[in-house]
Amino acid sequence: MNTTIFSILPTLFLAGAVLAGEAPAPAPNGIGLPEGYRDWRMIGSSHRTDNNTLRVILGNDTAVEAARAGHTRPWPDGTILAKLVWNDAVHPAWEQATVPGVFMQAEFMVKNADRYRETGGWGFARWKGLDEVPYGDDAGFVQECFGCHTPVKDNDYVFTHPAVLP
Amino acid sequence: MNTTIFSILPTLFLAGAVLAGEAPAPAPNGIGLPEGYRDWRMIGSSHRTDNNTLRVILGNDTAVEAARAGHTRPWPDGTILAKLVWNDAVHPAWEQATVPGVFMQAEFMVKNADRYRETGGWGFARWKGLDEVPYGDDAGFVQECFGCHTPVKDNDYVFTHPAVLP
Questions:
Q1: Contact A43, A57 (CB under 8 A)
Q2: How far is CA A149 from the centre of its chain?
Q3: Each residue of B14-51: pLDDT tens digit?
Q4: Is the ipTM of this complex over 0.90?
């Protein structure tokens, strides 16, 4: 009886993994979608009125510790910042409140001063939509990211200034 | 020698606790500032243009699990929602982005359907500013909170709709 149960279990686990769907494809530059980023802690937020999106910026443990210690110029190797982006929506009961609507994308900056030295020490990646489709036709897509971030070179190429907390 | 070290150690720890400052005072209704709320996970965000504030809504584990499972009408007992509020600031390098400026307050809703049955099952509390000063002159302050939340009674008195995530 025990033998039967133990021989069935691996099959059940495999079936579960298949049913849950495969991991999203990596970005064209080889960066994989960071696991568990939904559970990371909050570093900041923003509301862009040029493209009508709300953003919440999360960070992995290395990022959060650096942010709270004020060690962000430069951020340490191992930092990963995640920017979650939603289209603007109007709150159904408070029309002067903009709230997250359709989920647009998750954007990541991965700090490794040596590996990514050609793009300011940062590896960039983005996954679009709820299907988490990697952005970019080839590895050259990072030039678009890096170009947009170059105006904040003096802030280690990062737009986010960690939100002040008690 | 060992005796000397062990008799000094408790004094050093006590000095550290005093230097770190005491915990903020509880709210006038007895609710204490939830420990570790800065580390809670993200549930939503909003930008209010009637009072020019950016907000990020975090939740304790019970809240996050309920949000992800869609069990928010009602939220389960044990849920705590934290709304962190900053005044609007303009991003120094991207003027069409509103970002968190001065920290204003942390607001909490604590779910206990029985204990707080006179205010929709929710205990309310708020601490103002970086000094975390409890809001309200006496326990009656919750009527102000409850009054403002009554229009969203059909959403279990909660304004926040959890942001959609992949």
A1: yes
A2: 16
A3: 433 344 568 899 999 999 999 999 999 999 999 999 99
A4: no
Whether residues B41 and A46 touch (CB distance < 8 A) is answered with no
State how far the alpha carbon of A66 is from the alpha carbons of A55, A63, A77, B117, in Å. 20, 5, 10, 42
Determine which of A22, A38, A42 to mutate to test the interface with B (most B C-beta atoms within 10 Å). Answer: A42
Q: How far apart are CA B37 and CA A41, in angstroms?
A: 10
**Max Cα-Cα span within chain A:** 67
Cβ neighbours of residue B108 closer than 8 Å, sequence gap 6 or more: B31, B33, B34, B37, B80, B81, B82, B83, B123, B124, B125, B126
Q: What is the pTM of this model?
A: 0.88
Q: Which amino acid is at B96?
A: Q
Count, residues in chain B: 166
Contact B166 A46 (CB under 8 A): no
| Integer Cα distance of A102 and A130 in angstroms | 9
What pairs with residue B73 in β-bridges? none
